[in-house]
Amino acid sequence: xxxxxxxxxxxxxxxxxxxxxxxxxxxxARKQHQVETEIVEFRKATELDPALADAFVNLGAxxxxxxxxxxxxxxxxxxxEISSDxxxxxxxxxxxxxxxxxxxxxIPHLQRVGAxxxxxxxxxxxxxxxxxxxxxxxxxxxxxxxPDLQYYLxxxxxxxxKKSIDTLLATHPDSARAxxxxxxxxxxxxQMPQAEKEYLxxxxxxxxxxxxHLELGQVYAxxxxxxxxxxxxxxxxxxxxxxxxxxxxxxxxxxxxxxSHDALVELKRANELKPEMPETLYSLGxxxxxxxxxxxxxxxxxxxxxxxxxxxxxxxSHFGLAGLYRKQGKTSQxxxxxxxxxxxxxTIGPPxxx
Amino acid sequence: xxxxxxxxxxxxxxxxxxxxxxxxxxxxxxxxxxxxNSPTPKKFLIETMPGGVALFDYNNDGLLDIFLVxxxxxxxxxHVPENFDRANPRYWNRLYRQNRDGSFTDVTQAxxxxxxxxxxxxxxxxxxxxxNDGYPDLFVTSYGKxxxxxxxxxxxxxxxxxxxxxxxxxxxxxxxxFDYNNDGLLDLFVTRYMEWDADHxxxxxxxxxxxxxxxxxxxxxxxxxxxxxxxxxxDVSARAGFTAKKGRAxxxxxxxxxxxxxxxxxxxxxxMQQYLFxxxxxxxxNECALESGAALTSDGKGLSGMGTxxxxxxNDGxxxVIVTVLPRELYGLYHNDGAxxxxxxxxxxxxxxxTSGSSGWGVGLEDFDNDGWKDLxxxxxxxxxxxxxxxxxxxxxxxPLLALNHSGHFERADSGATTPIAARGAAFGDINNDGFMDxxxxxxxxxxxxxxxxxxxxxxxxxxxxxxRSNRDGYGARVSVNGQIRFATSAGSYVSANDKRLHFGxxxxxxxxxxxxxxxxxxxxxxxxxxxxxxxIREPEHP
Lengths: 354, 543
Description:
The structure holds two protein chains of two kinds. The model of chain A is unreliable at about 1-10 (pLDDT under 50). Chain A is mainly alpha-helical. Chain A has helices spanning about 1-10, 15-30, 35-50, 55-65, 70-80, 85-100, 105-115, 115-125, 130-140, 145-170, 175-190, 190-205, 210-220, 225-240, 245-255, 260-275, 280-290, 295-305, 310-325, 330-350. Chain B is mostly beta strands. In chain B, a hairpin with an 8-residue loop joins strand 25 and strand 26 (about 375-380). Chain B starts with 6 loop residues before the first helix and ends in a 5-residue tail after the last strand. The interface of A and B includes residues 326, 341, 342, 345 and 354 of A.
């Protein structure tokens, strides 16, 4: 890429004849992949014509081809002293500086040429995390499937999140939000007793803070303490009666305890608040089946297999339907659903245990 | 005023005291056994799987004796052919004879049960009178070769494995005697876990170094031996249909779930679907768990099946299945709906809420409080000895689970055990013949634990079957007492063998109606049977 860019750029220059001779020799050496010869020829050109910006750009480019980014910086800077509008010099210098760890110095050069990927990296390295997130988001808009960009956006977002939390912990260590942040961290690390302690402290400070009960409930659910999970989810559902997730989690906790009728009420409510969610519908089917409401169970699971084709939750719904039909004596329908379940199992693998 | 205490009053008071533990942890006087599983940093998978316990009356003196299976010595340098140092007394299996005062005497050496062979790491035990001579025989499973000991009736046993042809091989775990063809001779079924040896061991868990999950090793098949009646057995595994179904089998239990007169087999598999082998009555079996609804959870997920029980928990006359598993799953309860169909009912029965954080091994459905409903007891402990480092919400050592059955709904009760243990095997029986069921557990690296039932209420009846046309133990008989059903067997649980006597809690009933359907097809009824007795019932020789 560097070579093509240079050739195009040199076509518009007017070097002295002696310097031009060495530049052409350098370009010829480039074609032969003789990078050391390139460097000798372009350096000679700079000596013969110290005001010839293209000679310095070529020399810098040759060093970059060699991988010697440190050596490339001086001639590229000289080129920009001679002619500050040289876009290619800005680009090369930006990359070279970034490569050598001079991220802050690289940023204006990369901004000037719109090299978003390298600019985002430089912004991460200089702690400009908000800017980095914006830069990578813009880059991803143009190249949405680029895995490097996807990684860097996630990386920058994570760092930004951490920075924000660090600030929170430093400035307001005794706040409910600080305890919530610590609790979330412990939850990720599966250190449930510590997570529980922090959530309880957060709740003591701000009992009405949205999502605290929900998250604490998930701590309990994770360690199979279902009655406690039910209490927390119920508190969240009371606090936020419009939250489909709170209703769903409460329904699931009730279901785990075999309270199928209560679970059915909550899962129906979750489904009304946010319809056509496969997880809600699947659990709704399960609760209905346990509660003896076969019509709702069948309707819910059929909806899941309509929404989800080749997923494990579709497989589970086929399995549920098979059991339902078997109990109803609908043998051929039960067999059909079991076949669908087995077919999906063979393609996507068996549903995993929790 | 003097208050008169009627029997009802007393039972009511007993109910008021229900908060008191059902059991009392009692020392097993005279038993110095330590289960040597020999854990190593190499995490050889066999280390975490033993060992069995059998409650049986080997000398017919009316007292239950205890046989304990030992593991063996393992070092980090273990290689094929493995040597587990079983000649060393530290690693012997042990037989303890119960004395009249409730203490035990080690009779291992005198009984001829001392050295099981250095290449065999012990796993489990099955008990049955395979030659119908009136003395219970022992079958000991191992990683390596299994051993059949014939009870000579004089306090000694003889290793008859070679003659009988039941050594098997590979990694055998649970086993049980049953009469699959109703010919009056006990046959033998053996579960095998996986294809594994010391040279092909693996360590999992990254830096944590844990035992690997079963899926890391190839599956294998179970074994069925037909009793020829001349002291030898025929391996009919292929003909009967078992070699076609590979699995990772740990537990086995028997019952006739569809009432066709032939005993069926439930096999608990680890990390996959469970197996229900329907006895076709012609010497073959058909694995039908998936279509019967007894293979997976209600979510279509496999189970880490370890122990299993196959008895009727809800008194509807049909045997149901319970499977013990790892945490994050729920102990599986498959309700027998009739017509060959089962429904997963772990949630409805309350079992799910009691077990989602626990790991279960040995399991029994027995009426511990004699109220007429079979309760649940499970030996618990995680399979990984370092699980707490990996997941702080889990524990390696756990208390056993006692869940009392309230008309089909299980609720946790105080077992009386207060120290968490790494339990594996569990055998159930009335050790002190007081009419209340007791439990003996095995613990990895530790002594066995006796949970002696305090006996806090309810009438009872204990029945010992004496088959004549059927096998002498009456295994496979369907026994109904006041409408409750038990299937006669000493198998079930995990690597263990239970008291063969059939225990029934009668609640307030002082009389019982007993109905027996023998494996021979003979039906027998007894009316007005007095409660609170041990009753031997002999099968009519002429139907």
